[in-house]
Design a protein that fits this description.
The structure holds two protein chains of two kinds.
Chain A: H1 3-10, H2 25-31, H3 35-44, H4 47-64, H5 66-69, E1 90-92, E2 98-111, E3 118-129, E4 131-141, E5 145-153, H6 171-207, H7 209-224, H8 227-236, H9 244-257, H10 260-275, H11 278-285, H12 290-326, H13 338-342, H14 348-353, H15 359-381
Antiparallel strand pairs in A: 1-2, 2-3, 4-5
Helix pairs in contact in A: 3-15, 4-6, 4-15, 6-7, 6-9, 6-10, 6-12, 10-12, 11-12, 12-15
Chain B: E1 7-21, E2 28-43, E3 47-52, H1 58-66, E4 73-80, E5 84-87, H2 93-99, E6 103-106, H3 120-130, H4 137-149, H5 166-178, E7 184-188, H6 196-213, E8 216-220, H7 224-230, E9 233-238, E10 241-247, H8 248-253, H9 258-265, H10 306-310, E11 316-319, E12 322-324
Parallel strand pairs in B: 3-8, 3-9, 6-7, 7-8
Antiparallel strand pairs in B: 1-2, 1-4, 4-5, 9-10, 10-12, 11-12
The chains are: A alpha+beta, B alpha/beta.
Chain lengths: 387, 341
């Protein structure tokens, strides 16, 4: 037995720290990298997530500058061009010559004498060049920037890249405005869910015991109700005579109110596990106040998880709004959202004759995919030590 | 002890019970007695080893002393030269924070005990900053000083924990504990997560720091050879109670309690030719939720009599400085660890 201390005694030879090794620049950058940097480096390697980020950035630009990007006001009617199909942008004309900026052909209307069906064809003799930064309909961007400059337009005739709807309104312009509304519902709904989730989950995890038990059973109760019928019931209970703006806020709150349960559970479980972490005990022993323990040590370590969760649940918000509006219980015209626009595409006629009415669907799919990819990349990156 | 020095720390009948909850509406039914009435003292400048099996309550004892877990009952008294006796358990939360600087802890796991979102410098500075003991450049000075003492490369202080090896991380943990110049440090299995060669370095660091700063350690471990190396006295815990407490050599070679004897007999010897006679204990350590009656050790003790099942033995001094809780401490002739030649 006593020979073991002898071994330990001999090991005193090792007492000096190992000689310093020269670290090169790259290594040093890695060692001094904060957790956020590590996460970013890992996120960068996730290509789909990068594409998703790029898409989200475009969506953000669209939502902020919808008036500028849209060539027309969403309510301007083009009486000559009802249910007009999308006009194609051409870079090459029939002789094969290259044009920039691209142009669109003029439109030729013809009535089928037997069926009285109006057919619309391109008239290749008329070329209308697309122009950038043209003066068009005046607008007030976000309510205060007054201008009449649009990203693109034509000086002669009209341009409807995604076609027009039954009233002759430009679908491209309407989709731009719908993007703003639909995404803002997602963001505001998420913020509501975020606050409720953090507060209720925080109370549950912090106090524990009976409070925790009650809150958890309540959450289980809410989660056991199928989402869509519940949304429908709540949305249907909104008075019909409410103005569209009020309906908009009510729908946002309804969607937010039902999304917090997931987040609350995550916050609670994170708090419970963090409370047992050695470094939290260490902070307590170091003499940190409760606030300091919570905000300096606990919150930073679960914030990244919460952000990931938020990103992943974003698509559900958008889909919820779209679904409600689609069945007519959500937003109502004249508010434009993706779901409201898709109401026009509810019948077989639309699918058969006017498939361009589905343009908002492409945006819904893109947005949901983009958020899922980004959320996925962030989830992988949020644990930078798993290699 | 023949010449009683002033104990720095004294625990009196310290208890920590965890309520057992059964079902949703059941409320508290039954308790787990993690530590069940522990009394000992630690003298200034000494190292008290605390050994025992997993689940015997070693760690809970260390944490209850620091009030990292709130003790259910009992007292923890500190004697500070300039402040007199402080009842740590009776302090209010706000007062407790002021006294944290005197009592620090070194953790077992060098990975989970460092906040991955803080640089080494911030981790070491935390006790200074959190309690407002130092400000501005003084913080940096003290951090650098203690980091140097713990043989950390000062250039590495701006790195995050993920850049360090286990041994280096433990040095950071030690630096964090020492930066406030505490009087008493609980080393909770401070070396058991490390390689043997690193263990030796860390132990040497701890012992050198003890000499330099006049520290007092409660050294919790399950590695008996490490405990023998660093401790002046050793306490053995079994199922939430101390069964024996004695000066290190007494405890190792002349144990009074059958459990201590069993532990000691299991220490392997470096000489393969020597015949070991380990006392094999039957069964497992019982659950602290449902401990045996009387002496907790009686179901596994080969010397157990009727009285052991009914009466809890008193923890008292049988030889000078050697305390034990066994009805037959005086009668039994127990073999300790093998003496090296």
């Amino acid at each position: 037995m006593a020979s073991t201390p002898g071994v330990l005694g001999r090991l005193r030879l090792f007492r000096k720290t190992p000689p310093e090794t020269k670290t090169n620049q790259a290594e040093d950058t890695y060692y001094t990298a904060s957790q956020f940097q590590l996460m970013w480096w890992k996120f960068r390697r996730h290509h789909l997530a990068l594409i998703g980020t790029f898409l989200l950035f475009i969506f953000l630009i669209i939502s902020l500058f919808a008036e500028f990007i849209a060539p027309y006001d969403p309510f301007t009617r083009d009486a000559e061009y009802l249910f007009g199909p999308p006009q194609r942008l051409h870079f090459f004309d029939e002789t094969g010559a290259f044009h920039f900026p691209p142009f669109i052909y003029g439109i030729e209307f013809a009535m089928d004498p037997k069926t009285f069906l109006l057919t619309i064809t391109e008239d290749t003799s008329i070329k209308i060049p697309l122009e950038f930064f043209v003066h068009g309909e005046p607008y007030r961007m976000l309510g205060f920037i007054q201008s009449d400059i649009h990203l693109f337009g034509v000086s002669d005739g009209f341009v409807h890249l995604f076609g027009t709807d039954k009233l002759g309104r430009d679908i491209f312009s309407r989709v731009m405005f719908a993007t703003r509304i639909s995404l803002s519902i997602g963001v505001i709904g998420l913020l509501i869910a975020f606050f409720l989730g953090i507060i209720i989950g925080g109370i549950s995890g912090f106090f524990g015991g009976r409070v925790d038990n009650t809150i958890q059973r309540f959450i289980e109760f809410i989660r056991s109700i199928p989402t869509l019928p519940l949304w429908m019931a709540l949305a249907a209970s909104l008075p019909k005579e409410w103005p569209p703006l009020q309906v908009y806020f009510a729908i946002t709150i309804i969607i937010g109110l039902l999304a917090w349960t997931h987040l609350a559970r995550r916050v609670r479980s994170k708090l419970l596990s963090l409370r047992e972490e050695d470094y939290v005990t260490a902070a307590k022993i170091a003499g940190s106040s409760d606030q300091r323990v919570i905000f300096r040590h606990m919150v930073p370590s679960f914030l990244s998880y919460i952000i990931v969760d938020l990103t992943i649940s974003f698509p559900y918000m958008i889909l919820g709004e779209t679904a409600l509006s689609f069945i007519g219980l959500g937003l109502r015209p004249p508010v434009i959202s993706w779901g409201v626009m898709l109401q026009d595409a509810q019948n077989v006629r639309a699918i058969a004759l006017y498939p361009w009415l589905f343009a908002p669907l492409a945006f819904v799919i893109l947005a949901v995919l983009a958020f899922s990819f980004v959320g996925d990349g962030m989830r992988d990156a949020s644990d930078p030590y798993s290699r | 002890m023949s010449e009683p020095r002033l104990p720095l720390l004294e625990t009196k009948n310290l208890k920590k019970y965890y309520p057992l909850q059964r079902g949703m509406f059941g409320g508290g039914s039954g308790t787990v007695k993690a530590i069940d009435g522990i009394s000992f003292y630690v003298e200034k400048g000494e190292t008290l080893g605390l050994v025992g099996e997993s689940g015997s309550g070693k760690t809970t004892t260390g944490r209850a002393i620091l009030r990292a877990v709130e003790p259910t009952e009992g007292q923890v008294l500190f004697r500070l030269d300039d402040k007199g006796v402080i009842d740590f358990t009776a302090l209010k939360k706000s007062d407790l924070r002021r006294f944290r600087q005197y009592v620090q802890m070194i953790f077992q796991d060098p990975y989970s005990s460092l906040n991955p979102r803080m640089t080494a410098r911030d981790i070491i500075a935390e006790p200074l900053v959190a309690s407002g003991l130092a400000k501005g450049s003084e913080v940096d000075d003290r951090v650098r000083q203690v980091a140097k003492r713990c043989q950390l490369n000062l250039e590495h202080l701006r790195r995050y924990p993920h850049a360090f090896s286990g041994g280096q991380r433990q040095r950071i943990g030690i630096a964090r504990a020492l930066v406030v110049q505490p009087k008493f440090v609980v080393c909770d299995e401070a070396v058991s997560a490390l390689d043997v060669s690193i263990q030796a370095q860390i132990l040497n660091l701890l012992m050198d720091a003890q000499e330099e700063y006049g520290l007092t350690y409660l050294f919790i471990a399950h590695d008996l050879s490490v405990v023998e190396h660093v401790s002046n006295r050793v306490a053995v815990m079994y199922l939430g109670r101390i069964v024996e407490l004695a000066p290190t050599s007494k405890l190792f070679y002349q144990p009074l309690h059958p459990y201590t004897a069993a532990l000691m007999s299991a220490i392997p010897d470096l000489d393969p030719d020597r015949v070991m006679k380990p006392v094999i204990l039957e069964g497992e350590i019982p659950s602290p939720a449902n401990p045996p009656s009387g002496c907790h050790f009686h179901p596994r003790c080969s010397f157990a009599q009727e009285i052991c099942k009914t009466q809890t033995p008193e923890f008292k001094e049988y030889r000078p400085g050697q305390f034990a809780a066994c009805h037959f401490a005086e009668q039994l002739e127990l073999q300790g660890a093998l003496k090296s030649n």
